[in-house]
Design a protein that fits this description.
single chain; 110 residues; elongated
C-alpha cells in the first residue's frame, strides 16, 4: 500500500483536506473571476454582430436602390415641396427682382 507522502498524483482528493477561511475563499474566488473574465469587445460574436455582410445579389441591390430613391423622394416631397409657393411669393415680392424686372421692361420699350 502507498502512503500519502509517496503518492505522485496531483489530485486534490489524495492530499489532506484544508479548511480555508472565508477571507481566503473570497480571495480565491476573486482571483478565479479575474482569470475567467473576457473582454467582450474582442469576442468574435461581438465583432460579427457589428459587421454587416456583403450581399452581391441583384435583387438586394435593386431593393436598396429603390428604397434609397423612395426615401429621398419622400423627404423631398414632405420638406421641400410645401415651401415652394412661399419661395415663389418671396421671390416675386423681393426688391431686387422688382428692380430687375423694371429694368428689363424699360429696356424692351426702347
Amino acid at each position: 500500500m502507498v502512503s500519502f507522502a509517496e503518492c505522485k498524483c496531483p489530485c486534490d482528493r489524495v492530499h489532506p483536506v484544508q479548511n480555508p477561511t472565508i477571507a481566503e475563499l473570497n480571495e480565491k474566488i476573486e482571483q478565479m473571476k479575474k482569470e475567467l473574465l473576457l473582454n467582450t469587445r474582442t469576442l468574435s460574436s461581438s465583432v460579427r454582430k457589428r459587421t454587416s455582410a456583403k450581399d452581391d445579389r441583384p435583387s438586394a441591390t435593386g431593393v436598396g436602390v429603390v428604397l434609397g430613391i423612395g426615401i429621398f423622394t419622400l423627404l423631398f416631397a414632405l420638406v421641400i415641396v410645401p415651401d415652394i409657393p412661399s419661395l415663389v411669393s418671396d421671390i416675386r415680392n423681393s426688391y431686387a427682382v422688382k428692380n430687375l424686372l423694371e429694368y428689363f421692361r424699360q429696356r424692351g420699350d426702347r
